[in-house]
Structure formats: structure tokens, C-alpha cells
Amino acid sequence: MNSENEIRNFIAESQIMKKLHLYARGCDRGDLEIMKSIYHPDAQEEHGIFSGNGHDFCDFVVSFVATVDSVTHYITNAIIEVDGNIAHSESSFFVATIGISDENGEKIDLLMGGRYFDRFERREADWKIAHRQVSFDWYTRAPKSSSWDDPLVQQWTMRGRKDKQDHVYRFLEERSVGARMGTLPPEQN
């Protein structure tokens, strides 16, 4: 491989990795706009109980996230292979879903791990998922065991949220305004 192709592939891998991380943010914050920005409109998703259009999957996830106390995704160990405008990736995920209702209506905590098998396509200079299959490798469930009423966490003033009131949106807005006004250090502009 020549250095120009290596650089092009490195940039593509970086862009794809960012999309994977944005997928996690979109899921965890219940942000439909972010989630849909990860998928091409004709993308297909095979995700356990859901099989269908990627944008429809995004609607499904956002409505699900609204029913639980919190959800956190971690995406790691991504292996991305780029071939022109097509890329295939395998990445591992860990997801903690806190306060999900079980089959009896009782609140439980559900932890799962697995892998995403994605085909990304670059269309109009943008990498997005064209097809995703999900393999669930393990899970564990337990009775809900925590509460924000716990005295140990009462002093934590900044808590994650499942909406646009989450700190990340204020952080991104402040960063954007700072960059436009030139108040960020030069290396951060």
C-alpha cells in the first residue's frame, strides 16, 4: 500500500470510529438526530428483536430509552478495513441499562456485551452505516440495586441525562461559541 492510500484509509478509519462513538452518544442521550446521522436512509439493521430500516431502528431506540432510568454504551476494540468507498468493521460493545422493566414489570439492571458487524459506505463524502448485524455475546441481569437517593451520591451535582439537558450539549455549545469568538487556546481552535 502506498502512503497516500495509507493516509486516506487512516482518515476513513478515524471518521468511522467517530461515527461509532456518536452512535453511543445518540443512544445514551436518546438523541434521534445524532442516531439518524449515523445511518444511510436505506440502511438495514439486524439487532436482536429489531430487524429493518436503520432510521426506524433509531426511532425504536429513542422510544425505548425514554422508558428506562439510564443507559450507557461503550464501544471498543474496533477493527476497521477500508476498501475504497466501502468499509467493514467489527467492534465490541458493553451496555448497561439501568431500571428496565422485566417481564413482570419489576425494575432490573441489565448488562450486555457483544459485537457490531458493520458495513459502512462513503456517499457524498460521508461515512455512514449501510448494514449492521449485532451479535450478543453475554448478558447478566439483577434486581435494581441503586437510587439517586443514596447518600453516597447525593453530593454529585452533575448527573447524566437522557435528553438535550445533558451536560455534553452545553459543553459542545460553549466550545463552539468559544471557537467562534477566539477565546479558546490556538491549539484547540
Automatic annotation (TrEMBL):
Residues 12-132 form the SnoaL-like domain. CDD domains: NTF2_like. It comes from the Bacteria. InterPro entries: NTF2-like_dom_sf, SnoaL-like. This is Nuclear transport factor 2 family protein. It comes from Sphingosinicella xenopeptidilytica.
